[in-house]
């Protein structure tokens, strides 16, 4: 079951919408054919087929598509058939009402229920003797719209909680890393103090022993013994501190190395589970990267997928990793409604630009001509500081 669910999440939403539209066209035609009392069958099938085809745009443009569908029902009720006797048109309107609730924002979300009330009211008015029969279909449509709004609100809340959890984890990792660096610095200072003090004592004792060798060799043994003891104490202290450093290097995963491109599959799977179909393509010859560049590459892909999940709407995304002879190019693109101009107003993109600039690379982000949004970063494999 999980395998089937995972495969379904990777399907292109547009293909699913096209399939739904085709299914309604076929079932709607069969319903009209079954109603043998209707005249002008070919015209009816064509007109209703246009209305059902609007389901293909239920995610990308739900409000205009619903308005167009209701307009076809109105024309059909005025010219050909009593729409109220058919069941498939009602189901199609309920699907579109749910889509308007789930996939609209801002002004469209306010306009959606108005389109439902006006459109279905117009269809009902064209059938004056049965106008009251449209009260219940309209009520069901509004309920479907509210259900879609509720799902959208829950989905956005889940995304925000997921993002907050990711950022909290990153902040914790950074805090732990800073604490580890501070501890290493403290130990380094202690090592410096111990070595400097011990060497100073040993030099003074050695000079005293040298001065006594000619006049009183027996007394010279005492400072030489002190040199030996000081050296032993210093070596013991150094061993203790170096042991602490080794323990810190072998500590729990909280101090483990930061993620890299080897963890892209796990990142992509998390994004798929959040509702965004993602595919990954690798070009060139993959090879290990320097740790800093590897971490930056992972964060760039993570930021691109996070932006697509937040701003692209119903869409699919693709991650492309191109390994060149002297650089690696990362591209994260989606076919949604876009996530802004890409001029760097968001903190995420600003952070990515700074991260890329450290290694002398470049990053571009913005809408794609064919629709959607793309983030492209190039990182030299031989890192160099930006001028």
Give an overview in words.
- This protein is an alpha+beta fold.
- The protein has 3 domains: 2-126, no CATH class; 180-255, Single alpha-helices involved in coiled-coils or other helix-helix interfaces, CATH 1.20.5; 261-380, 2-Layer Sandwich (Heat Shock Protein 90), CATH 3.30.565.
- It has 11 helices and 5 strands, in the order αααααααααβαββαββ.
- A 5-stranded mixed sheet has the order 1-2-3-5-4, covered by helices on one side.
- A hairpin with a 3-residue loop joins strand 2 (317-323) and strand 3 (327-334).
- Helix 4 runs antiparallel to helix 5 (88-103).
- The radius of gyration is 35 Å and the shape is rod-shaped.
Q: TL;DR of this structure?
A:
The chain is α+β, with helices and mostly antiparallel strands and 387 residues long. Helices cover 66% and strands 9% of the residues.
- State the distance separating the first and last CA atoms: 54 Å
Largest sheet: 5 strands, mixed
Structural class: alpha+beta
Rg (C-alpha, Å): 35 Å
What is the arithmetic mean of pLDDT? 78
Count of domain modules: 3
Kindly estimate the percentage of residues that lie in beta strands according to DSSP: 5-15%
Q: Give the CA-based shape.
A: rod-shaped
Specify the number of helices.
11
Query: What strand order characterises the main sheet?
Result: 1-2-3-5-4
Would you list the SSEs in sequence order as H and E?
HHHHHHHHHEHEEHEE
